[in-house]
Amino acid sequence: MTEKAAEPPVSSTALIHHAYQPPAGFEGLAPGVYKASTVVFPNVAALRARNWREKTGYTYGLHGTPTTFTLEERIATLEGGRQTLLAPSGLAAIALVNAALLRQGDEVLIPDNAYGPNKELARHELEAWGVRHRFYDPMDAGAFAALIGPHTRLAWLEAPGSVTMEFPDLVGLVRACRERGVTVALDNTWGAGLAFNPFALGAAGPAPSGVDISVHALTKYPSGGGDVLMGAVTTVDEALHLKLKFAHMRLGLGVGANDVELVLRGLPTLALRYQAHDAAARQVADFLRQRPEVTQLLHPAFPESPGHTHWARLCHGAAGLFSVVFDERFAPARVDAFVDALKLFRIGYSWGGPVSLAVPYDVPAMRSATRWPWRGTLVRFSIGLERPDDLIEDLRAALDALHG
Ligand SMILES: *Cc1c(COP(=O)(O)O)cnc(C)c1O
């Protein structure tokens, strides 16, 4: 007679309702990763009394967990702000600001060299919702001030511009907005909270000299691994924060605890990595600017780059990004062949990870409010964490392919 297999020692019910509590005395240095959609209440009165707005308790995963609260606090500290909201990507953070603040009939100002999808959102969804937009020349603070009209509700700033790397007069642009009561949001992904303090741009004084909102694609340097998408919206004003927070809740922009864990893990090495990306990028950029094939280097720490003096006045560093414009005698197809010939540099979007990246861009097609002064093809480089000499050798070899 064969014996029946024994019952498992515990039932699923016993496992689900297991009495285990993490030991109270366990004080590991890494924050715990807490995951929940549901959080439970001891009774109905507690459920009714719990308030998620002031972060005094937990009500539902979408409204925050100890893990998301920890990252929010750390990003607010990093950026010199007071409150932070997390969104599922940098672009979702930009969209949250627009959705929370803009209404039919309002106008938003966006730099002509802004992160492309920010402009696309304005052209499509915002336009369809009756929100108008104007793209402005970020290098002309006077013309920017003149663009501000009675319906201007929000102005975006970005420093430096995506891809073309012009560094604007942030202090002048912010001052123009403050004088006219326009809310100012900065895409601070490049600065990462390390190059400058977005909430204190000018001299210390009674009037606030910073932006109202700093948006950060944590996807880039805070993550550092090229394996997470996340965004942050940081503020100093409680009323503005609450306005954003209500929209954030109503739009359901939650983030996953495992992704938050990866960003929390990246933060302790953020400053070191940023410095390493910066130093390596300057070394590689310096090699390229001396090559006869290159007509223009676009890296705000170099004097020939537009807005260098604004960068020099404000910043304590630069990120690992720069672009070069090739001489116009090299047709776009030749520049593509150069990028294809690179071995260490990979071809792909985004930046902030360990792997160096290169992408050619057709800049005139990206502009509508400003004139692009160069005629050759631009390639944007994101310098990773490889040995800079190895990257330079890779570029040297690929430049042969440029000549064909
Ligand atoms: C990458 C990037 C974003 C968007 O971040 P995602 O997480 O990729 O959506 C926004 N702004 C700038 C300047 C960026 O470089």
Automatic annotation (TrEMBL):
Answer whether the UniProt record assigns the keyword rRNA processing to this protein: no
Coiled coil (UniProt feature) = none
Record-level GO BP terms: L-cysteine catabolic process to pyruvate; transsulfuration
| Catalysed reactions, semicolon-separated | L,L-cystathionine + H2O = L-homocysteine + pyruvate + NH4(+)
- Residues with the modification N6-(pyridoxal phosphate)lysine, per the entry, are K220
Q: Which GO terms describe its molecular function?
A: cysteine-S-conjugate beta-lyase activity; pyridoxal phosphate binding
UniProt keyword Membrane present: no
- What cofactor does this protein call for? pyridoxal 5'-phosphate
Q: Which UniProt keywords apply?
A: Lyase, Pyridoxal phosphate
Q: Please give the family membership noted in the entry.
A: Belongs to the trans-sulfuration enzymes family.
Protein's UniProt name: Cystathionine beta-lyase
Species name = Caldimonas brevitalea
Tell me the lineage of the source organism. Answer: Bacteria, Pseudomonadati, Pseudomonadota, Betaproteobacteria, Burkholderiales
Protein encoded by which gene: metC
